[in-house]
Amino acid sequence: MTDSGAWAYRVDITTEQLTETAHTAFAVEVASSQSDFRKVVFGSRIDTELSPDALPAEPQEILEQAIAEETYTEEAPITEAFERLLDLLGLGAVDTAENGKQLWYNDEFYRYGLYINTN
After folding, report:
1. Structurally, how many domains does the chain consist of?
2. Is 66 part of any domain?
3. Residue 12 lies in a domain
4. Is residue 101 within 8 Å of residue 90, measured between CB atoms?
5. For the residues 43-59, what does the mean pLDDT come to?
6. Domain that residue 97 falls in
7. Torsion angle, CA of 92/64/57/90, rounded to 10 degrees?
8. Is 1's pLDDT higher than 70?
9. Per residue in 75-92, pLDDT tens?
């Protein structure tokens, strides 16, 4: 209380900077139709698209065996059919290994690769 009988008040002002996390959601149109969307997805995710009807018989048999058994192996010299399949899969020029490729075959997705053991 002051001499005049009023209460004395003290006010302190402090300025602090607060950092708050901002969350921003956004959407970008990538296609205006289902067929365009399919092209975008396939173009960004699929390395190779093969159709059973478009494959020669022997490479198709090798591919389907590899799918059924989850592996296929040939020793050198490899057959022309296997060499053709490797070319169709984009693996014809691989020297040692290639992995993590995506294949669309017979309306299904597959992950594929090639390992070459020279020992």
Report:
1. 1
2. yes
3. no
4. yes
5. 90
6. 50-115
7. -20
8. no
9. 989 999 999 999 999 999
